[in-house]
Amino acid sequence: MSIEKELSEKAFQLCSKFLCGEWKDRNNFKVEKLNGGLTNKLYICSTQTGEGKIKKVVLRIYGLIMQVSRNFDDVNAQITESVVFAILGQKELGPKLFGAFSEGRLEEYIPGRNLKTEELRIPEISTTIATRLADYHELEVPMSRDPVLLEQFQGYYKRCEQLGVNMERYKEPFKFCSQLIQNTRSPIVFCHNDVHEGNILIDQDKIDAGSSMIESLRLIDFEYSAYGFRGFDFANHFNEWTMDYSNTKWPHYHFNQSDFPSNDQQRRFISAYLEQQGKLSEDSIVQIMEEVMEFAMVGHVYWSLWSEIQAKVSDIEFGYVEYANDRMNAFR
What we know:
- The chain has 332 residues and is of the alpha+beta class.
- It is 48% helix and 15% strand.
- The protein contains twelve helices and twelve strands.
- The chain has a five-stranded antiparallel β-sheet, with helices on both faces. A three-stranded antiparallel β-sheet has the order 6-8-9. Strands 7-10 form a two-stranded antiparallel sheet.
- The chain is globular and about 60 Å long.
């Protein structure tokens, strides 16, 4: 059986098991690849109802790095991941969870499109993302409150060593960033940890119909979500302003460090975030901006190590080696 047929059959079995009803009709079942994932493989599964309407769900197959870094062999880790995803769906902060299994999950299909990198700097969109992030950070989630960043950072470093990556350029940055993480004053919140344009959906039909931006924009993809440092989430997002993943040619991204948000753009974003939480003050704005400058450096090394691992284990077509180099050059 070909890989395509094997995948289609597996997808049908999963949809039939978790969704039942129309999803048990093999003749009307279709599956197609959804481009854009850098960690996991995404597919849209669809079927036709008796009335001729099309139903869709997203099938997410975890990449190897997720299975290793999140220890998906551990039943407790799988349960926690599923509970978190389900809570976010119930609060309409993410897609609904339809089914969880050892290699991935079935999710609600949300109509809309991913943002483009250049849209991140549009004031209305930027402040809406900040508002969404503010709500996200105030979530109470039934999982360990201990920050996982340092543990993940060390885990990526060790994994790179095991995979034979030349670690010479990482030794000093790793020590520097590890110390920074240990000494940070940034508060611990429930972080998304991967807020880039590809993980933000906007429903243009809703906007055209008169809905507000906050009603039409959603964060998605919560694989890296965990309790962690507020500044890391902010810095990650601001670093993503410099990365455009729409490039159809190798290495499948563009990097422009000069696109990092200006002080005014940072202040606008941070002010919207704090206002949503009822904590707006000049001191709070300055504090978060200081956190951003610290964790922007950490983020470059963190995602460079991640990319080195992906280059060794992933079969997704992306310039992971080039990406690792660009992130380390940005650190310097």
